[in-house]
Write a structure and sequence with these properties.
- The longest helix has 28 residues.
- The chain has one domain: Na+/H+ antiporter like fold (Up-down Bundle), CATH 1.20.1530.
- By secondary structure, it is mainly alpha-helical.
- The protein has 14 helices and no strands.
């Protein structure tokens, strides 16, 4: 019941973003409003959160377990989606642009933008450490390397970006590097700096949810897309987190840490993939529809996962 209430609270903030997208003041476009908000989070608030949490967080065996659980989730999802596409192409025509969009949509979960607020509300703020390690040590690097190569393979863009160059342009990863250096060198965190980082980090969760709502394009969803979208939702919301549960237990994670990891693995399609689709000329509308449907269904599926995980 708690998970349902939390998901409904998250849905209200997401709905606020969707409403703001349509009713925002017309002195600037809705797209400009969204970009300003996401840039604020991406370039300032999220790096501050990374520094605030990981500067003093322990880097132990559990860190590797979180990363391996995330990697297993990505690998299983990608393999299952590829197999699904082989079967679907026997009964219907699927363009390369659609295949690439579906591969990205099924493989990469919204571990930070939705995972951070959900796990924080359900389990507590201590999960911020797990979310950041799950995402920044696995999901984001894989997205900006193998994910970009995947998009290039299926896409048609003439501008090929080297994956390593893409990694160098991600402020949260620079913050991760700095936090790791400060952590391992046992550099104490000055009180004034700690207060400033904590204050900035406090804006991440609500602004992430509002930005997520502003990014969801409900108008892209069409009934004819359901045969393509159902495998994405089934894999991302059910099969991949089941694999993550098996791996996490095998690595020795248990109780709340296990719950947090599996919930992160069960997150719906990440929003950032829309930008990759646009850059490499994949089917952005299909990807946006996957974000919309998987996010909608996750209100129920995450509640079910939370209930199941109480028995572990």
């Amino acid at each position: 019941m708690l998970a349902v209430i939390v998901m409904l609270q998250m849905a209200l903030l997401i709905a606020t973003g969707m409403l703001w997208q349509r009713l925002a003041p017309d002195h600037m476009s809705a797209l400009s409003h969204r970009r300003a908000l996401t840039d604020l989070v991406f370039y300032i608030l999220l790096p501050a959160l990374v520094l605030d949490i990981l500067w003093q967080a322990p880097f132990d065996a559990s860190t590797l377990s979180f990363a391996l659980t995330a990697l297993s989730r990505l690998a299983v999802a990608a393999l299952c989606m590829w197999l699904s596409l082989q079967l679907l192409q026997r009964v219907m025509t699927i363009s390369r642009a659609q295949q690439g969009a579906l591969m990205l949509a099924a493989t990469f979960p919204n571990a930070t933008y939705l995972g951070l607020p959900v796990t924080s509300e359900v389990l507590g703020d201590w999960t911020h450490e797990i979310v950041l390690k799950f995402d920044l040590f696995a999901c984001t690097p894989v997205l900006l390397t193998l994910g970009m190569l995947m998009a290039q393979t299926y896409g048609q863009s003439e501008h090929k970006t080297h994956p390593l160059k893409a990694l160098l342009k991600v402020p949260p990863l620079w913050a991760l590097l700095l936090a790791t250096i400060l952590n391992l060198s046992h550099t104490p965190q000055p009180i004034m700096v700690g207060h400033a980082l904590h204050t900035l980090a406090g804006g991440v969760v609500p602004l992430m949810l509002i930005a997520l709502g502003m990014s969801i394009r409900w108008d892209t969803f069409k009934l004819k897309l359901i045969p393509l979208l159902l495998p994405v939702c089934l894999i991302g919301l059910c099969i991949a987190p089941l694999a993550a549960l098996w791996v996490a237990r095998g690595l020795g994670l248990h109780d709340s840490q296990l719950t947090a990891c599996v919930l992160l693995a069960a997150m719906p399609t990440m929003v950032f993939g829309i930008i990759i689709c646009e850059r490499y000329r994949l089917d952005g509308a299909l990807y946006a529809a996957a974000v919309f449907l998987s996010t909608l269904l996750s209100i129920g599926s995450l509640s079910v996962w939370f209930a199941i995980l109480q028995d572990f």
